[in-house]
Structure prediction request, 715 residues.
Amino acid sequence: MRIELIKRKEHSQLMAMLSPILAVGLTLVAAAILFVLSGTDPLLGLFKFFIEPLLDVWSLQEVVVKATPLVLIACGLSVCYLSNNWNIGAEGQFVAGALCGSALPILYPEFETAATLPLMLLFGVIGGALWALIPAILKTRFNTNEILTSLMLVYVANLLLDYLVRGPWRDPDGYNFPESRMFSDAATLPGIGDGRMSIAAPITLAVVVILALVLSRTIKGFEIRVMGESPRAGAFAGFSRKGLTLFSFALAGGLAGLAGTMEVSGSLNQLLPTISPGYGFTAIIVAFLGRLNPIAILVAGFVLALSYIGGEAVQASMGVSDKIANVIQGLLLFFVLGCDTFINYRLRVVTSRSSGEKAGA
Amino acid sequence: MKKFLKATVAAVAFAAASSAASAADLKACFIYIGPVGDFGWTYQHEQGRKAVVEHFGEKVETAYLESVPEGPDSERAIERFAREGCGIVFTTSFGYMNPTLKVAKKYPDVKFEHATGYKTADNVATYNSKFHEGRYIIGQIAAKQSKTGTAGYIASFPIPEVVSGINAFLLGAQSVNPDFKLKIVWVNSWFDPGKEADAAKALIDQGADIITQHTDSTAPLQVAAERGVHGFGQASDMIAFAPQAQYTAIVDDWAPYYIERIQEVLDGTWKSTQTWGGLKEGHVVMAPYTNLPDDVVAMAKETQAKIEGGWEPFTGPLTKQDGTEAAADGVRLDDGAILGMNWYVKGVDDKLPQ
Prediction:
């Protein structure tokens, strides 16, 4: 007996709907098994991991705070990936944007006006976009592989940040410790409520809605999808491949830069040697979990953020190792991608006696 | 679905019951930068937590979060503990400083203890150890034992604590051999076994026959053992990883401090302080001297006794790398100068990353 994957003639609407539910179900079962193996109560573990964070205003806010940069970056990346531009360097664009956005409050701390914050955000967008345009221009002019160049620029951006906070941008009153001065109130993103949420969340929501409309309702959205699926057909329609590469990289970089500036301004209030726990890389996962659709990305970002907050909760309250939390997160991704296989493929069980087709939803 | 709901309800009930059932007088919580199994910095803090559990028994409940990255995640982790009823929260990495202060402002009734920082508040104390005292001793041992007269130093980040460690090591070495050479590799990480091992190999290739490190993994010592040279343990006694190669280790012993501070919270006498203990206070401990001839052990023990008696390795005459005087003969650098050190002493073969 053996099991075969057969390509479907067209993708299954039923599986497209069932797949995420199935994946979550399988993750819950696997997580329960893990909890049992590590000697903790599986029901309590699942509850603390997946449900409790949603029942409390504070942790709900924290989920939103964590999801915000992920969703914003993933939205930009989705445009890249839809149009077949493999931008892996959002982490660097996030940092480059944060650097440009932070230049104002660090170099001119006494510049405290109503224009401070909008200017910072603008600089952040421009910084991220320019950083992203480097691999885009290299690709369009010299046909370099953008996966490599965009990824390599992540390290450049991180080292630049490292250099600045240890050198020229170091806090003059900071005993030589590697951190910039704290931002003034005028350079701090206004908060919402008493938690750590800031207006970064509604800004991100607006970006999601606008991008969803652009992708589904406008000629630009059509261009992006056509060029991704069939560049030749797109060329006949008069769309420029190079133009779209520049556009999608600039957009993704701009949004990543905006996310970086908002994270620094709304949450850290200063530059540190590391300002991102890998948002730019995690956002790639979010983009694909959300199937490159802005609304679904919003959901995916929320679920992934929940898995971080939940993982921390089981660690803090039940003493479960953070490795277990990471494994559960990994399992979630594994099952989602695994179940998605069945949208385009179906199972066929071939027995030795009959080669007849059997179950395979 | 119904079954799932039932299970959920049961879990809620159980959660409520379990949180009500804790009978401890105080919950002490710890935030770690690395994994508890790093066998270095975080491992030693975890040993301190375990000592707390052992000392107080059921009177004190503990919890920890490991591998919490510095940055936005740390503020959430600290606040989580403050919200979950921790009476005292130990945040054990420099980068947690501003997040700790932010959370402390919101939770004035919770005590916070931040390791290696310099900012305090009414409910935020700081603590650190005089690791450089141990570095002076291992510098002396290195100069005695090295045949090439060169040691390799794997450094993490150019912050004052690391810089003063490098200086103390070289001062110790120079007290034995004035021409002793020190090569430095910066790995820009506290814990990266791969990078640390590569750095150790590069340093040995450049002629260093003693390896020491201000990073937290056991990798440099293991490389030293493989290559037949010697080294020192960092933060914890790493003898098990290199029984033939380790001379001694500078061990951070946080247990006495943790027990003392938690007792103060229980007694209601806790105050915001800035603690900086060393060999004398038992916060820095030298692991047993091994693989060494008797005269070197005697010298090390003599220096150790001198430091325990109140002598400071950073006592003049001290000359900076650029030749200017840092301290005149017999003048002892004050604590602030050591805690903010951003210059090399004469003889360091490196340019301080600025």
Remarks:
- Residues 27 and 332 of chain A are 5 Å apart (CA to CA).
- The radius of gyration of chain A is 23 Å.
- Residues 66-320 of chain A form a domain with the ABC transporter involved in vitamin B12 uptake, BtuC fold (CATH 1.10.3470).
